[in-house]
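So, could you explain this one?
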Amino acid sequence: MNNLKPIFCILLAAAFIATGCGAQNTPKAAVQKFIDAVENNDVKAMEEVTTDDTMKLVALYGWKMKGALADNGKVKSMSQSIDDDYATVNVIFENGVMTEIELIKTDGQWKIMHSMNK
C-alpha cells in the first residue's frame, strides 16, 4: 500500500494545481480539471486531461483518489515551469506534502503523464 502513495500524491497533486485558472490551456488548468473530475467521479473529464498510461493508473486506483485528496487538504502553494511541450507543476498541500506533476502537450492540450513504469 505504501508503494502506491507516491502515485496517489502525483495524481492528486496534479488535480489540485490549477485552482482558479479557468478554461485556459495551461498545465495548471489541466490539473484543476483533473481535480474537479476526481471530486465528481467524472471519468470522461479525467480522460481528457491525462495520457493513456495515466488513465490506466486511474482505472486501477482511482477509487482511492478522492480519499487521498481529502487527506492532503487544499493546495497551499503551487508553481509551474514549461519547456516546449513538457511542463512540471510543483504543489504543496496543507498537510505539508509536496509533489511534482509532469505534463505533456499532446495535440495542443496539456495532459498529466505518469507511467506505470516509473
Summary: The chain has one domain: 2-112. The beta strands are 75-83, 86-93, 98-106, 109-112.
